[in-house]
Amino acid sequence: MRTWVLFGVLVTVGLIFLTCDAFPSNEVYALKSFREAIYEDPRMVFSNWNALDSDPCDWPGIFCSMALDHVIKINISGASLKGFLSPNLHFISSLQELILHGNVLISTIPREIGLLKSLKVLDLGSNQLIGPIPLELGNLTSIIKINLQSNGLTGKLPTELGDLKYLQELRLDRNKLKGTLPASNGSNLTSSARGMYVSGAKPTGLCRLSQLRVADFSFNFFFGSIPKCLDYLSKSSFQGNCLQAEDSRQRSTALCGDTPPAKNHSTQSNNKHRLVEGRAKNQSASKPTWLLALEVVTGVIAGSLLLVAILTAIQKCKNKSSIIIPWKKSSSEKDHMTVYVDTEMLKDVLRYNRQELEVACEDFSNIIGSSPDSLIYKGTIKGGPEIAVISLCIKEEQWTAYLELCFQKEMAELARINHENTAKLLGYCRESSPFTRMLVFEYASNGTLNEHLHYGEGCQLSWTRRMKIVIGIAKGLKYLHSELDPPFTISELNSNSVYLTEDFSPKLVDFESWKSIIARSEKNSGAISSEGVCVLPNSLESRHLDIRGNIYAFGVLLLEIITGRPPYCKDKGCLVDWAKEFLDVPEVLPYVVDPELKHFKYEDLKVICEVVNLCIHPNCSSRTSIKDLCAMLESNIDTSITAELKASSLAWAELALSS
After folding, report:
1. 385 phi and psi, to 5 degrees?
2. Is the pLDDT of residue 144 over 90?
């Protein structure tokens, strides 16, 4: 018998351990969805959230049950997280506390939050949430505390909140809520300390919250009278509204607008009202026919004007800069989220329609570049300039609300760039049918520097022309790093990000910024990380290059220009590793020069190699600023017409001797 008991205990313990090892996958999925909906994490809260870890109990801000088998609390407050509140949080069925106070959440409150039956604390205060309070919050049967203060919530207060029988604290202050406070304590109120006891009719709305101890409705746009069942609350809980209350500070009439007055008529006034109505009916019965006809015509005209006004308002709403972004593909409009485009952010950016760009780019057949993330078309705007159109390759069902905000931010960043050695953003295209996200740049007719160095005729890039390109790139980077506030860095600075105009002037272009938007990891073979390491394809290290990373990449680009070699190739390895043995030995410097060149200036070569050494210094903090590097290049390299003619005569002399 004892053996069987011992066996049973062992089996039970084993089952417990097995259960602990198998953490619910849907809860991990919900947390990852929450993480993906946040697009700015300045305090690196998510840096230790390992996407490959199936047990999130050690992740910062996540608290699990004693058995480590469920997430019961999420507390990430004051972290300045910017993004959206994922509706997939409802998969964490055992969640008891959701505390995200003091962040920058900018979405609506997902109605799926109402599915969290175990939730006791919901604190989303001090964010930038918009839209109405979901009716589904009335399904939070275990909730004790709700804090939605200091947001931008609109609409009426749901009467369903009266179903929360355990609710003790309700903070809704400093929003844009309107309407009456939904509370009625029945017809025959009996006096009590809290005014919560009624006889006869049952209380409704907020009057049903028998456990409510603390509530704050201040600084909204509520109108009407303060329910008697809430008299026990502090008067400051109702200030800053449009309520009919003499003893608490309310908004001015100008701020409140046309809010309906409180229904507080006495029996005498009701009788007078009925008497007036009776007289009006008697008078209308004795009106002549022509007067009735006139009233009918006037009513029809007034109705027509009202209809026109309504239709105009609807049309304006349709034209409002807003887009519907699906969290997931669904045929129901309720499963979508509205994200309002920041018109102030994009006020200086021209918006093109897809049809216009389709005509300009010959039905999108003129493809001049491609990557797994985007296609680049060449086109000509009718009566306008030649353009390069970058089209994002992504399906609509993969496009989320926070990606849309990233897209807007990217456009705003690119729009502020205006320099002779940087490509100018002319506009963008954003349409929903068919799904389209495009950026429109001015076109540089001579293609990329990479094409000329590695696939074209090298003789087209003489030494003097290469020096002009070097100085032009330096000027462009100097503008981006030191003249823009905040500074701007090129995501992947290499010969593919330098376009050449008809006279071979360089234009820096940040086409690779798409990769930071859609979070892909494919990289071309010329990527350089901020640590100065050659990055192989599929590496994530070079996604976001800082200024020092751009400096290093500039040094590698200089080597690529003077040697004609790519930054990395499988046979010869990294260009930097190959060049290091030559850079510090003046006698062998000429060996690094592109054999395609018939001549070069040794003085220029020494300056270039000195700048390269400063750029690729192993200590990031010791790298010279682009401002100083640009000054070195401009003061020591002569790219004038005289220098070009002199170089040209030397070339002819060399050619004559060789023949």
Report:
1. -85, 170
2. yes
Alpha helix (H) residue ranges in 509-546: 513-518
Residue 272 has phi, psi (to 5 degrees) of: -65, -40
Span 366-384, pLDDT tens digits: 888 777 778 889 999 888 8
Closest CA to 409 of 467, 455, 349, 346: 346
Q: Check pLDDT > 70 for residue 638.
A: yes
Burial of residue 204 (CB within 10 Å: 0-12, 13-18, 19+) is: middle
Using a 10 angstrom Cβ sphere, with 0-12 exposed, 13-18 middle and 19 or more buried, the burial of residue 78 is exposed
Amino acid at residue number 368: I
Interacting residues of 621 by C-beta distance below 8 A, sequence separation 6+: 548
3-state DSSP assignment of residue 277: helix
Write the burial class of residue 143 (CB in 10 Å: 0-12 exposed, 13-18 middle, 19+ buried): buried
List strands edge to edge, sheet with 38-40: 38-40, 82-83, 104-105
| 209 in Cβ contact with 165 (< 8 Å) | yes
DSSP 203-267: PEEGGG-TT--EEE--SSEEEEPPPGGGTTS-GGGS-SSEES-SSS----HHHH-SPPPP----H
For residue range 197-230, list pLDDT tens digits in order.
444 568 888 999 989 999 999 999 999 888 989 8
Q: How far is residue 314's CA from residue 328's CA, in Å, rounded to a whole number?
A: 27
Q: Per-residue pLDDT tens for 493-530?
A: 899 889 999 899 999 988 766 665 655 333 333 333 33
